[in-house]
Every structure is written in structure tokens, then in C-alpha cells.
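Quick one: C-alpha cells for this chain, please?
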Amino acid sequence: MYCPAHFAESRPEELHALMREHPLATLVTMGDHGLNADQIPLLLETAADGTPVLRGHVARANPMWQTLHPEIEALAVFRGPEAYITPSWYPTKREHGKAVPTWNYAVVHARGPLRIIHDADWLRRQVDALTQMQESTFAEPWAVSDAPVDYVEKLLAAIVGIELTVTALEGKWKASQNQPAGNRTGVIAGLCDLGRTDAAALIGRD
């Protein structure tokens, strides 16, 4: 990923926070027919040795896991808030016209080896953990145990687990850090006026 120094984010706590807030990742792998890209919710957890790992599952019918080249690292891309930035928000545009549009965004790239897991107990724990995380904000959270046992077992048999051991983590927070103070103030005001939660989340990134 091209990442000028002023946009680079390396603090693990910030990177982990974005990954947890936006768990639906684009998982890029190499298979027999080239690159695969799947949209997979991945949970960031910690292995026994303290290494960060990403855990999830895919449909057993998905050919990705069957043709995976395990010797080639996988890449998980987590996209955070994003917004188009119009030069109309820049005071410098009115001063001298030397301004162009851009796009602000936050993204995390996680790389590492990917392994396939068939263990039924592991799969059940992973599905339970994913469900609990997503359901925790609801007044009446749904649990896997709410469904009939035979139904759950049938669905678990139709998936396989995936685990990516994170060996490299890279973040990019593109939030107008390269603009003069007046332009940054204009961007903040413009994003607030949009009324978009995801756009407003870019405010304060540094």
C-alpha cells in the first residue's frame, strides 16, 4: 500500500480498534486460478503466545479454501470511515484556486499465513464469538443456542474455519493532515454539514 509518512498509522491500539469496529474485511488469497477476494467478517483475537490472529469462517462450497496456496501470505483489508473531500471546503480555493478534490479514509492491512480449520468445536466457538460481538448492542440479543440443535449442527457442517496469524500490520489514516490549518478546519465543517456518521468519524484523526 502506498502510504506517505504523514498518513501512516502504526499504533497497534488504533489499528486494532478499527479492525474491531469494522470487522467485515476483504480477504485476498492466492488460489489455483489467481487471486481471490472474499468479504469475510474476521474477529481479532490473541493466540496463546500473544500473537494477534484473525478468525472467521467461509462456506464449505467456497472454492477459496480448497485451492488455497498456503505458502503465499493472505491479506485482510479492513476499511474504516471514508468521505469525498471537495475543494469548495478549502479557504485556499477561494484565495488562489490551487485546490483539487481528494478522498479521505482510514484503512488497515493485515498480512500473514492462512490456515483452514475443520474442527467442529473450534467452529462453534468462532460462530458464538462472532454472534455475541454483533448482538451485544441489541436489547434482546440473539444467541446461536436460540436455534434448534440439529439446525445449528447442519449449518456448522456447511462451513470451514479460517485463521490468519498476523505477521504484519499497516495502517493509513488519510484525514487531510497534509493540508494547512485553514483547509483542515474547512474539511471538518464540511464533513459535519454532511450529517454522515462515517464521514464525521474522520474528524480528529491525526
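The first strand starts at residue 8 and ends at 9.
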